[in-house]
Amino acid sequence: MPPVARFKIAAIDDLLRQLEYAPAETRRRQMDAAEQLVADLDPKRNYPEDFVIYRITGYRPDRHDEPAVLVGEALLPDLINMVQVLSRSLKLPPQRDGSNAIPIDELSKRLRVSHKTVQRYRKQGLVCHYIAFDDNSIRLGCYEDALQRFINRHTERLDRAKSFTRISDDVEAAMIKQARELRKQQRLSLNEAALMLAEQYGRAHETIRLLLRRHDRTASEPIFADRGPLTDRDIRVIHRAWRWGVEPVQLAKRFGKSKPTIHRAINRRRRDLLRERTIQFITLPTFDLPDAASVILGAPAVAGGLNECLPLEDAIALLEAARLARSPDEATEDALLAGYNFLKMRAWNGIANLADWPTSELLDAIETDLRWAGLLRRRLVMLALPEAIRRVERNLHRSLAEQPAEVIGSMTRLALEVVVNAVEAIDPTRNQRLERFAGFAMERALAQLDLTSAAGRAAAKHQRGAIPLDEQFANLHAMIDFLDLPASLRRHIASLEPPAQQAVILRYGISGEPPLTCEAIGARLNMKPNGVVRLLQRAERALRAARRAANTMQSPGA
After folding, report:
1. Is 32 left (phi over 0), alpha (psi -120 to 50) or beta?
2. What is the pTM of this model?
């Protein structure tokens, strides 16, 4: 049997693991429910996770947080794979509800398409099962009713596939010869030559283009000086290099592509990285108001002072500042929570509606919203962290600063983790207050620990700077890691020239204002957006060089 494909969606994978030891009747029932869901699914829509679980199991998950949203396009192959996996252990008969099973090898003849095309159809909605055929073999097959549902849903695609005729070897050789002449005489690109040949031979442009690419990949004398399509690894390397400040024109030379192709590859990778992230938010009634964005995001607490922060590099300084911190006022807290959830909702909607080839401007807007949300999250954490630390000290019956260094480190890390989770879970629509909510969460976390040994130790004394905090404190502003400037680079911003320094500050909201898009930065600096992008790339290169120089100076023997 072929290996089972991996699941893209964790919820489906988890559900399948839960069914591993379930009775056969339960597995069969949920297999049939998953198959029915495939028939009803629209790949272009998004579905709440609890709806999907309910359709398969008949039970609604008991949860208090906002359910994750699953993309229909990713959900479809996972459901088909789930049906296939469950069918392995059920020994399904070759007849089901009056419908005969067709072995997968015969499907290509029935549909008059290639075996590879059938494999593609399986990812697009053709449901197959492992079936115990009459010859005592267990093979992959498709019941006639499932096949008919797929045919009814994809009639046009199947008709096009049936009408397709293979290009003969003689015609293909003639095409390649003509392409070589077109390249030699008219210096046409592969794409231009494919367009001319497609019109001459009455074939699809993409068919000819792929034929020419396939020839050049294996030919000892390729017609076109082209590496072929970018691989997934190429795209990841291009995106990482671009983030590190390498300009697209250099990447175009390196990979033998045009500059627009490099830009499209970068944007495609940015889109994929955004789609991989799970963004959860609480929907507030004010979000539906016509002027919600200007009112919510224009609040003083949301639009300024975002760099107000407790000391996050040294534990003793943090504890001293937390001891002096006042409880947050409700107006500030409410404004921050509303802005934080609104920005996440706006980013989530933007990601859900991204096209296959999104524009740089749209991606920049979504990424800027997430940077802004990260700064708001840090402000909320700073408001609740002092209370979490106070709860630790109450349980210890003494100041945390008097504990050994390892206890201080572990307790501050625990407090940060609890508070970050509390900020994500708090629901303002239930009149929950952040400080109290985080305090109760801290008490629950402490109840699982044995603090008696720590409380009984002799008091210790520590100077400021003696207990550095982890990088997770320094990078607390990062909503999504690849969107933000690491703390190790932020330390060198002062070394930049004035225009680059200002662009970086505006880009990441370092002065306390909300982060800006490249277009907005351009308006501030009287530059075009493309010029801002190049300026930020040069600044990134300069910051990395400054960090390397600083590390060299600090290394032994430098």
Report:
1. alpha
2. 0.62
Q: Are 339 and 376 in contact (CB under 8 A)?
A: yes
CA distances from 201 to 171, 207, 239, 404, 429 (A): 9, 11, 38, 80, 65
Q: Where are the alpha helices (DSSP H) in 187-280?
A: 190-201, 205-218, 232-243, 248-255, 259-276
Q: What span, in angstroms and rounded, lies between the C-alpha atoms of 341 and 425?
A: 11
Angle 518-525/360-396 helices, nearest 10 degrees?
100
Contact 342, 297 (CB under 8 A): yes
Distances (CA, A) of 382 to 21, 32, 326, 378: 46, 50, 11, 6
Quickly state the pLDDT bin for 162 (edges 50, 70, 90).
low
C-alpha torsion 547→468→388→410, nearest 10:
110
Beta-carbon contacts of 421 under 8 Å, excluding residues fewer than 6 positions away, are 441
3-class DSSP state of 468: strand
Q: What is the pLDDT, as a whole number, of residue 378?
A: 93
Provide the strand spans (E) within 144-228. Answer: none
| Span 345-375, pLDDT tens digits | 999 999 999 888 899 999 999 999 999 999 9
Q: Give the separation between CA 558 and CA 545, rounded to whole angstroms.
A: 16
pLDDT of residue 302: 96
Distance, in Å, from the CA atom of 39 to the CA atom of 125, rounded to the nearest integer, reads 8
Structure tokens at 120: 């593609």
CA nearest to 125, candidates 53, 52, 42: 42
* 529 contact partners, CB below 8 Å, separation of at least 6: 361, 517, 518, 519, 521, 522
pLDDT reading at 155 higher than 50: yes
Closest listed residue to residue 542, CA positions, set 476, 474, 485: 485
Say how many C-beta atoms besides its own lie within 10 A of residue 54's C-beta.
14
The model's confidence at residue 344, banded by pLDDT at 50, 70 and 90, is: very high
